[in-house]
């Protein structure tokens, strides 16, 4: 596993967590007390979040900073993520 921070991949993880929580970008931004533009920038990887905001995001979605920033966490979280990605790919193939 690559142990470097990739803003785009981090943003993708945040977007997946938000969607799993059934929140809009606006609702997530409101919960985090930031503008929706700033939030969108984080999800797309165009903007970086401060460490304080990353802590808030991790807390909001119930994940660790390791998972949020680097994509690594417990084996359970990695397996869940792999299964989710496989389901997405299978859904795309079924269409």
Q: Write down the overall geometry.
A: globular
Tell how many strands the DSSP assignment holds. 0
Instruction: State the distance separating the first and last CA atoms.
Output: 31 Å
What average pLDDT do the residues reach?
A: 90
What kind of sheet is the major sheet?
A: none
Number of helix segments? 6
Strand content: under 5%
Report the radius of gyration as a whole number of Å. 13 Å
Helix content: over 70%
SSE ordering? HHHHHH
Question: Which structural class is indicated by helix and strand composition?
Answer: mainly alpha
Flag low-confidence runs.
none
What does this structure look like?
By secondary structure, the chain is mainly α. 72% of the residues lie in helices and 0% in strands. It is built from six helices and no strands. The radius of gyration is 13 Å and the shape is globular.
Brief overview:
The protein has 95 residues and is an all-alpha fold. Helices cover 72% and strands 0% of the residues. It has helices at residues 7-20, 25-32, 36-44, 51-61, 65-70, 75-94.
Features:
single chain; 95 residues; mainly alpha; 0% strand
């Amino acid at each position: 596993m690559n142990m470097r921070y990739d803003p785009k991949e981090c943003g993708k993880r945040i977007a997946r967590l938000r969607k799993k929580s059934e929140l809009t970008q606006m609702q997530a931004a409101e919960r985090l007390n930031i503008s929706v533009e700033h939030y969108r920038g984080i999800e797309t990887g165009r903007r970086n979040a401060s460490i304080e905001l990353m802590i808030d995001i991790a807390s909001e979605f119930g994940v660790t900073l390791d998972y949020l920033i680097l994509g690594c966490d417990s084996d359970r979280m990695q397996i869940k993520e792999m299964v989710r990605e496989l389901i997405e790919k299978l859904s795309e193939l079924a269409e």
